[in-house]
Structure formats: C-alpha cells, structure tokens
Amino acid sequence: MHFFSVLQANTVSFHLGTESSQIDIDLETLTFENLVEVEEFANQIIFSSKALHTYWANQDTLHSFPLRKSPIKDFSEIRLVEIADFDYSACCGTHVATTGEIGLIKIRSWERKNNGVRIDFVCGWRALRDYQQKNSTIQQVSNRLSLPSTAILQGIEKQLLKTEALSKELISIKQEFYHNLATTLFLQGEIIGNYKLIVHVLTNTTPNEVNSLAKELVSNPQTIACICGTNTDETKIHLVFSASPDVPLSMNHELKNILPLLDGKGGGSPQSAQGGGSKIDQLPNALTLATSHIKEQLYLL
C-alpha cells in the first residue's frame, strides 16, 4: 500500500485476497503510463531491499516524524512504519523486515470503482505464478498461430479480420439460402381455399433465422407460415406463426393453443406470434394440431 503513494492519491480501502489484492484510491482515472510508472517505482523500492522500522508515537512526539499523511483521528499513541529513505506512515498492519522480502509487485488490472479506481495486483510467489500462467498462455497461442510471441497481437488482429470477412460472407450465403428456401416453400405450400398454408421445421438454426424465413413467406398475400426451428443441441424449439395482413385469423391464438404441448411460452399479435419450448418430441403432434385447427377455420371462410 505504501508503494502506491507515487500516484499522489488517498487510499480509500485496501483488501488482501486469497488470489490477489486490491487497493481503492481516489483518482478519477488512470492511464497505462501511470500504471507503468507506479509499478516500476514500487519494484525499484523492493529491489533496493530497504529496511522497515516501526515506532510508537504520541501527540507530543508525532511532529518529529516526517509523515506522508497526518492521522485523521485523535489518539493517545499510534504506530508508525518507516521504509528507510522513502516513507513514514501510520499503519497497524503486518510488515516485512525489508522491502526485498516482497520479491515483486505486478499490477494486473484496474477498474472504475464508485468515485475512484480499484487496482488489482499480486506480489511475491503470486506474481511469479501469474507470470508463469500468462507466459504459458502466450506460448500456446504463439504455437497455435505459428508466430513468435512478439507478433501474436498482429496475428490475432489478422485472424479477426479474416473471421469478420468470413462471417459477412456466411451471412450473405444464409440470406440467399433462406430466400431460395422461402420461394420453394411458397410454391410447395398447401392451398386451402384462397389461402396458402406453409408449415416447415428447421434444424440447427437460430430464432432470428426462423423469424426471417416466416417474415419473407408472409410478404406474399393470403399466406400463413408456421415455421419452427431447433437449436444446435436439439434441446429447444423456437416457433413463429405469422400471417399476411389479409388473413382473418389470430396467429397469437393458434400459437398459444399448442404451447402447452411443448412446455413452452410465448405470444404476440393476431398477425404474428412467437414462442419457445423444450419438448421437441412433441413437436410433430403440436404442428398437426395447429395445422388441423387452422385448416378448419380456413374452410369456414
């Protein structure tokens, strides 16, 4: 805690954790340069192996010590800690005999905390273990990318650009696929009177893809689309029941009528409703029920 005095800020609180320690100080922000400065300064004091001494002072003798910060509370006697040629502070904590016993200080991160900042750091063997773990990770990434450690960041940025380009290409391909699928499904849809009913189940898909397919289908007039999709591990179902504006049926009612079979929830408007469930084995029965009910109503129109 004494070492962070170089930041010229007041300590708000200090916590010694089992994995790392944190200190809260009343600074509005920190920069990378600030952290490098305080870390190098702290380790310089440690490597100098300065001796620590403790003293007891009272109101009459306190003025003889060059304290960095005067005690706030009244006291009859107070314990002072001196780091030779560096710092005098009032402190009741446990201290080493020399700064060299600390071994090393490594700042791991910082974050905004209330009206100040919290610095997370490790010392001694913890600092060594932290370095070993991170060095091992860097070596593994270096091997995976077939790059020296100094070029890892550029290599990752290059891979991210490739991934972004591939993602855009995949999105374009999927859009074309679902457009063609919508065209095919519409042509194959069952004609009931003046209306067309389309029921289809997608696998290994996302709710957005189910929604998009249903939306494109009901862009056609007099069309009802009951589109369902299962996720990758086939544990959940997403359903979208939609109709073009000229269909006088309630999709919200039709969807809610089958959701109990799927242990599902959902709802929406008369024109479009969506929901989800987990009983995938009941999906065929649920769709049969929905299709039958929709047909009955369409035949009455």
TrEMBL record:
Signal peptide: none annotated. InterPro entries: Ala-tRNA_ligase (IPR050058), DHHA1_dom (IPR003156), Thr/Ala-tRNA-synth_IIc_edit (IPR018163), tRNA_SAD (IPR012947). Its EC number is 6.1.1.7. It comes from the Bacteria. SUPFAM superfamilies: ThrRS/AlaRS common domain. Pfam families: DHHA1 (PF02272), tRNA_SAD (PF07973). One of its GO terms (molecular function) is alanine-tRNA ligase activity. One of its GO terms (biological process) is alanyl-tRNA aminoacylation. Keywords: Aminoacyl-tRNA synthetase, ATP-binding, Ligase, Nucleotide-binding, Protein biosynthesis, RNA-binding, tRNA-binding. It is an enzyme of class 6 (ligase). Residues 78-120 form the Threonyl/alanyl tRNA synthetase SAD domain. Belongs to the class-II aminoacyl-tRNA synthetase family. This is Alanine--tRNA ligase. It comes from Pelosinus propionicus DSM 13327.
